[in-house]
Amino acid sequence: ISKGPVNSKSAKSTMIPPGPPVYLDLVYIPNHSNSTNVNVEFFKRVRSSYYVVSGNDSAAEEPSRAVLDSLLEGKSQWESNIQVTLIPTHDSEVMREWYQETHEKQQDLNIMVLASSSTVVMQDESFPACKIEL
């Protein structure tokens, strides 16, 4: 009889282990901002001035409200209150609701959310745009 894991996928940890924080300028939140791999520990450890939030699939819960809430919880545990800018790549109902419901906490934590509805029109095409100044 084998004592090993029945399902090797369930035996593999997808969460970030505790450890010292890493400081970066720009972070793309992995997995289309789905809560499978991103939690409070991610934001406690991966500290950035800018986070890019992707995901526009509401059926797959992307971006995840849990991920956005994890940013607030993780940032509240930083020693310093440096400004953080959240850059959504798509406009979504989840993002709008989260922004409105947590706006006061965002301000307390020095988190700014850039509007995602800017559009650049060039000749016959248009595409979403965002200006980032580092």
UniProtKB/TrEMBL annotation:
Q: What GO CC terms are in its UniProt record?
A: cytosol; dendrite; microtubule; microtubule associated complex; neuronal cell body; synapse
Residues spanning the membrane: none
Q: Which GO terms describe its molecular function?
A: actin binding; microtubule binding
Q: Which InterPro entries match?
A: MAP1
GO biological process: one example: dendrite development
The entry's protein name is: MAP1B protein
Organism from which the protein derives: Heliornis fulica (sungrebe)
Query: What broad taxonomic lineage does this protein's source fall under?
Result: Eukaryota, Metazoa, Chordata, Craniata, Vertebrata
